[in-house]
Amino acid sequence: MNRSPDLTTVVWRKSFYSDGGASNCLEVADDHPGIVPVRDSKRPDGPILVFGASPWASFLAYLKK
Description:
Elements: E1 12-14, E2 26-29, E3 35-40, E4 49-52, H1 53-64
Antiparallel strand pairs: 1-2, 2-3, 3-4
């Protein structure tokens, strides 16, 4: 059984938390209920991390503090 989400057609957007510089380029993909795919825009063919929506929301809340 394959538990990996199909991310072949995702639309990536630069995270609001990326500063736009060459060294901080985090991208996320929206429209995946329950998960948040994340990648390094400098390595689009590199690994994709997939976080649960709730842990991701907690992470963002921590960043805002």
